[in-house]
Design goal:
mainly alpha
Length: 195
């Protein structure tokens, strides 16, 4: 008797689960929602992935890898104006916020806010994500400082942490004040650390 072939693509299911968690968040997504969205039975879901926590963790890990790769692709590009490049990244976030695409756009951000310290395995993924993102920003800033394109008054890692955390903070600011000029003024103040 040949082994039973799975009737669905696990990677595609994780991708779809990631999109649903991005849209609704962890708490608002039920197993029933997952089953309906993924088009698989609850027994297949449990049998293949385990519980909701397990599939959420897989989705979060995938999203984290995708975000970091996108960030890496941007930050390794040669630029004659590193500050303008960072401003462009922030501008893209502002555009997304004004289009009401976030927090749906970042599962890592949504998970860090929603789950706080309740799930150690989620915290571990977010901590790794944040550390690797900070390393990418640090390398970018070190290159820019060595070439004389920016002036750093603090160590590159401290400036990288500051920029990264303000990238997250912009999402919270937008919940209070979704005016483009307010958000852009905030970004200009953040990036003045490079002047």
């Amino acid at each position: 008797m040949s082994p039973r072939v799975k009737e669905f693509d696990q990677e595609a299911v994780i991708e779809q689960a990631m999109a649903l968690f991005c849209q609704k968040g962890y708490a608002a997504t039920s197993i029933r929602d997952l089953v309906a969205h993924l088009g698989i039975s609850s027994s297949s879901l449990y049998g293949t992935f385990g519980d909701k926590d397990a599939i959420f963790l897989l989705a979060l890990k995938r999203h984290s890898r995708m975000e970091r790769e996108m960030l890496r692709q941007v930050l390794i590009q040669p630029t004659s104006n590193p500050k303008a490049m960072l401003m462009q990244m922030f501008q893209g976030l502002i555009d997304s916020l004004l289009a009401n695409e976030l927090p749906g756009g970042s599962l890592t951000l949504k998970a860090s806010v929603e789950l706080e310290n309740r799930k150690p395995e989620v915290n571990a993924v977010i901590a790794e994500h944040t550390e690797e993102a900070a390393n990418l920003f640090t390398a970018f800033l070190e290159r820019a400082a060595q070439s004389g394109q920016v002036h750093l008054r603090q160590p590159a890692r401290q400036v990288a942490d500051y920029i990264l955390f303000n990238f997250f903070n912009l999402n919270f600011l937008a919940k209070v004040n979704l005016q483009r000029d307010c958000l852009e003024n905030y970004v200009a103040l953040v990036l003045s650390v490079l002047d």
